[in-house]
Amino acid sequence: MALIADALGQAGRLFRRMALTEAPARPAARARRDPLEALAGPPEVVETSPTVGDEVKYTTCYMCACRCGIKVHLKDGKIRYIEGNRDHPVNRGVLCGKGSAGIMQQYSPAKLRKPLLRTGERGSGEFKEIEWDEAMRLATDWLGEIRRTDPKKLAFFTGRDQSQSLTGWWAMQFGTPNFAAHGGFCSVNMAAAGLYSMGGAFWEFGEPDWDHARYFVMFGVAEDHDSNPIKIGLSKLKANGAKFVSVNPVKTGYSAVADEWVGLTPGTDGLFVFALIHALLEADAIDFDFLARYTNATWLVVQNPGGPDHGLFARDANGVPLAWDKTEGAAAASSRADISPAVVGTFDLADGRKAVPSFQLLAERYLDKQYAPEAVAERCGLTAERIRRIAAEIAHAAFQEEIVLDQPWTDWAGRRHEKMIGRPVAMHGMRGISAHSNGFHTCRAIHVLQMLIGAIDTPGSWRYKAPYPKPIPGGPPPGGKTTAPNTPLSGMPLGFTMGPEDLLVEADGTPKRLDKAYSWEAPLSAHGLMHMAIHNAWAGDPYPVDVLFMYMANMAWNSSMNTAGTMKMLTDKHPDGSYKIPKIIYSDAYASEMVSYADLVLPDTTYLERWDCISLLDRPIGSAHGPADAIRRPVLKPDRDVRPFQDVMIDLGARLGLPGFTNEDGSPKFPGGYSDYIVNHQRKPGIGPLAGFRGEDGQTPGKGAPNKGQLEAYIANKSFWRLELPHDEAYFKHSNKGYLDHAVKLGMIDKADQIVLQLYCEPLQKFRLAAEGHGAIQPPERDRERVRTYFDPLPIWYQPLEEQKIALDDFPLSALTQRPMAMYHSWHSQNAWLARSSRRTSST
Amino acid sequence: MTCLPAPFPGQKKLGLVIDLDTCVGCHACAVNCKEWNASGHSGPLSDFEAKSDGVWFNRVHTYEAGEGEASRTVHFPRSCLHCEEPACVTVCPTGASYKRAEDGIVLVNADTCIGCKLCSWACPYGAREFDEDDGVMKKCTLCVDKIYNENLPEEDRQPACVATCPASARHFGDLGDPNSKVSKLVAERGGYDLMPEMGYKPVNKYLPPRPKKTGASCGSKASEEFSLIDLAERRAAKDEIAVKTGAEPTLAKADGKGAAFLRWADRVLSR
Amino acid sequence: MNRATAEKHGLVDGDFVWVTSHHSRIKVPVRTMEGVNPNTVWTWNAIGKRKGAWNLPKDAPEGEQGFLLNHTISELLPPEKDGYRYSNSDPVTGQAAWYDLRVRIEKAAETEQACDPSFPPLERPPGMPDRPDVLRFEAGGRKQPWDRRPDPRAGRRAAS
């Protein structure tokens, strides 16, 4: 009855509407109508071709780290629709839930509106709005004072910053080594292990060969890193009939569609991989040709226990590592193409030292019974039979289903090969490997497994994304050995250490960086330790700072460990009432938890309101098919008093008189802001933030003079640039002459030398030797044993450090956090559409 | 109370084919649908801060079937199935819910909907969405204002959920035409009706997950019994690598290390 | 958490438990599933919000029901013999080791059926408008001769 009453109640409304309606013509195809329907009036005319929008603009998504191309339809000044850009190399037209919710990100009621200055106690959220002039003056005063006295008193940490080549450069010009982004929280184990082993890495610097892989093993990936490319790839693999194995303690997202879910115990992935290696070695399922040609398996390792050279490569007078040439029966430069190198054996060097090929050390280690599947199975939460079966499947796919492409290519030594022959076993790994304290070695273990079966950048295997591979490791050492007033650093704050001489430590071993990166506590910390910045600034360990400047890093909530403690540190005071962290500047587009803990808030724009570049100098969007980069362009004008963070940094750089940001007469070098910098900044002659459309005429890819019309050229090309590599450069990039020469020409690498894959990682041995008492730079006593233990040139497995320190009986469970599919960072649970989808996810 | 169009031979039945094998439950379909349709034929699709939900034409449910490690996790996208005999239409007292004769799309005319919700009671699939702010019932339109839209390039004339799906788990086409791509896909992959016993003849089809590859491997040798020992033997034979005479066979079996090193010492390799 | 493991602890969906690490503890509701390693508990990342932040209503589910596992993760490892505490990181690269977390779980008392810890709500920065109760986003708007919303309810704020 109630229903009928309700219906009758609505009828009045209905007729009111009808009174205003002109009866449209009855469409021909309309169905018969019930007489009762006559009450309802005429049938509906459906407008099937409405105008979609007034304008279409192409830009780059920022709803996660994928950086997909998007096509934004605008109507009446509002966003009508965001869809994937079909031509874009990353997403090829598709778009995930996050990207599709960009509209709600743009119209979020949490957007900051104007600079804010704290008026109450820190953390109280009491602010007053101030003008930009005042905000910039305050920031310049605070930062200027530091730069004139002690630049390292500025700690500048950015979060999910996609402009790190600018922010790192800014820190370098300012002269503070205390810069990092969120990579230390996120992915540095994976990135460093890859860069030190194969000159590329999972995720950003590489991808599975989705078209040819027959067997795909994914380690520790929930549903991100990356998002759309993995989804596109998985569907290809499945259509091709390949097998997909997901190694992850939790079966959600990608794992749910895997052919086999390996729900192993967290932190034991390394042991699992060693057991696979053990089984493959036992069965001789090893690609020795690949090892001899492309890896350092045959390089001779000096065996001189206790000596300062023990475990280092034997080298010739030019510093080239030696291999044992079986033809000559003598050591020879490993770079020679005409030798027949030994993979096992003990050899006498000319100087009387003994040496063995690194493969021998590797095989001895992993053939040991402690790594047999039977020995590790229980700890991994698996059965030995299952590990052996997976090893057999890997071997089967690699060796019985090899991929042969009729594609001639020329190797590093100039030899032509008629075919490209590949081992179609692809691997991918990310957070579940990376965020463990044994993650670096575990990730290296996976790379060793890939090398042993000859599955790096071959058809069907894991492939480099251009501009990778880079020489191993890629890049110079970190800058910051010395800091001085009004002086830039000697190099970028983040880099790659090759031995103790590259560390940023005082003579007594005290860290030079606030976060203790590149100290004996974390010698290869290529992304810094953002997670320690607030703690160390609060504790004054190794020294206090004056300004903590953060961007897009929600450290007072989900981006910190010990969140409650972090909030206390941010508000903690000295007995004299002054804050332990004296000044905090924070920039964000939204009223995140961190905003309440800032003294000065610089409101950023949304990603649809600014210029940006996705640069080869930073975190590029290249693929195995070739280098690519992209821009963001303003799609909408901000409707509030906010400025793009990058513009603010460039302005601050000019106000502070930083060398990279001012001309000799002191005037701003980039008066047009970030877009000016994107076009005109040159990191090296001819190399700038964007690699496309360079040269004065815009016709030069990679390396060339700045082009005034570069941004227009990008816009005309749907906001990205891409260069498709010729087919003969598609694989074996580490050893492919055509590719290496091309990469030099494009400015992606400096020399066309073969990039030999590092099964055995010599820099680690250098740190270990220092810990064992060799060399001028040695760790402090406290760190000595730690460095000796964990700096093994071949991958090791150890119990995660927290487990080593606690009574496991008291804490019997592992605890993890994973991202839901439709959520990437803290932005998203306030996004009206993504919040709904996560609420539903968690309730279904 | 509302009649259905009379069926005729060769009738177009536009609908979706959803692949449960590749759907990873990412909600791309749901959100992209929301953004297209928020400003589309049935827009806006209201959201309510105080409640956990709003109007969504597409919802993805994730559930587990079975127990223990062998259980299967299924991501199940759900939207209107554009049934051939939709009860949601026939119960409609005003004709607001109707099925188009020309393509079979089930739509709601918001102007004549009185918000009585009879249709949502009648739909066994839960595909109807009542917009409390508008006071009318809404539902999947199969992007009727996109699939025929002459302002869009031809290749973009497909429902938002299909165009955006990163996992290619959604397909759109004429299921009335046995030769269409979608009909063939359904035939090849054993596509099925959701709850056929209800008798509403849903047009949308679901493709079941492909059988999980277990045991040996992929491709042609999928059923072959396979072990690493066999592989070692085959490779040894192929490469003419003989285990050195004199090596203790028992040792080699108990611990392949000794034999392996001897074999490897004999490898002739080139750079 | 794994259903079988939950059963051993006498837990069913919706029960509140204390999750305790060597560092700290949180109180959260349990949800069971099959597809998880039996010795692992897990949660979605970054959904929980502090009340009042992000211009969310102070009673939004993100603040009321959402929680943060981060509270239980220490940025420092337990002390060495000399009292020094290394960061909770990979000793080679300094990567934050937030997946190393180990915990125990204990059923919370009947009287403790809410998430913990809970922090005072954050104030909205000045100048920020109210978050609408009803969101009706529509770009362009279709040209209709009548108002699609026949009866805007009093006291409801809508934004489009």
TrEMBL record, chain B:
It comes from the Bacteria. Pfam families: Fer4_11. Keywords: 4Fe-4S, Iron, Iron-sulfur, Metal-binding. SUPFAM superfamilies: 4Fe-4S ferredoxins. GO terms for molecular function: 4 iron, 4 sulfur cluster binding; metal ion binding. This is 4Fe-4S dicluster domain-containing protein. The keyword rRNA processing does not apply. Residues 14-44, 71-102, 104-133 form the 4Fe-4S ferredoxin-type domain.
